[in-house]
Specification:
Layout (H helix, E strand, L loop, with lengths): L6 E6 L7 H6 L5 E8 L7 E8 L13 H7 L14 H8 L2 E2 L2 E6 L2 H16 L5 H9 L1 E2 L9 E2 L7 H13 L3 H14 L3 E7 L4 H20 L4 E4 L1 H4 L3 H8 L4 E8 L1
Parallel strand pairs: 6-7
Antiparallel strand pairs: 1-3, 2-3, 4-5, 5-8, 8-10, 9-10
Length: 261
């Protein structure tokens, strides 16, 4: 966009979350973004994006790893975390972050981590007999040398290349393979330095976007400090999100929780 005047675009709401990277990255080039939901004649809400020049900003941002370049580095971690604690300074830095009505709470106590690992395991196991869930998971499985920019390559699960080629078919045909995922997730959470919970004051499409924006912001800050994140949502999808919220001693609607380390 031209830095002289604001530029306004609208996109379908269901296409909004892939644009989170772009919204955060434009700061690198001296632009802020305001977003809001607007109704249309076909009753399908759209996301309005307004790109606004930052006064006095010239050229690209420099200094520490920028949010733009951090996007290429961020991965969803699915293996156990290596030993070592995340600094209290970094945790304090992200703990105060909000985006609209979306806010973050963090726990690092071992008892809470253990309890949340069990809650997540039990929730994931509720999907073990659901063939539709298995097919959805398999649709996102990718071989180790995939050229696609989405999905889950086998190496992110610790799978060697030959096994990764078969993982898609095995997951699709065997709902029980979800049990393997559940056990791996539990081990990963237990090895983490802590967990974060993103909640919103109420469940609206705009707050879902706010939750996604907040998570991406947190993830990019963490990756610049070489901290890994593992997003989770099984307990929320299984209807046991209240058990998660209780461990964080917070209120509101749970949207997403994640392990880090």
């Amino acid at each position: 966009p031209d830095h002289a005047t604001p530029e306004i675009y609208t996109i379908p709401l269901h296409s909004a979350l892939p644009h989170v990277n772009r919204i955060l990255a434009v700061n690198h080039y001296g632009l802020n973004v305001r977003h809001s939901l607007i109704n249309t004649e076909d009753a399908q809400p759209r996301l309005k994006l307004e790109f606004i020049p930052i006064p006095g900003h010239t050229g690209e941002s420099t200094g520490e790893i920028s949010m733009l370049h951090a996007i290429k580095m961020r991965r969803s971690h699915k293996l156990q975390f290596k030993s070592g604690q995340v600094s209290t300074e970094l945790i304090a830095r992200v703990s105060g972050l909000r985006y609209g009505d979306a806010h973050l709470n963090i726990v690092t106590g071992k008892d809470a981590i253990h309890e949340l690992a069990e809650v997540h395991f039990e929730a994931t196991m509720t999907f073990a007999d659901n063939p539709k869930f298995s097919k959805e998971v398999s649709s996102w499985m990718r071989p180790n040398h995939t050229g696609k920019y989405d999905g889950m390559p086998g190496f992110t699960f610790g799978l060697p290349a030959p096994v990764a080629l078969l993982a898609k078919t095995i997951t699709s045909l065997s709902p029980k393979s979800v049990a393997v995922v559940a056990k791996n997730d539990r081990r990963a959470i237990l090895s983490s330095s802590g967990l974060g919970l993103i909640s919103t004051l109420n469940q609206t499409p705009e707050n879902w976007i706010n939750a996604g924006m907040l998570y991406q912001h947190i993830g990019l800050i963490f990756v610049t400090q070489y901290v890994l994140l593992a997003p989770k949502a099984a307990a929320i999808q299984a209807g046991t999100g209240g058990k998660v919220t209780n461990q964080f001693v917070t209120s509101g609607y749970p949207e997403l929780y994640f392990a880090f380390g």
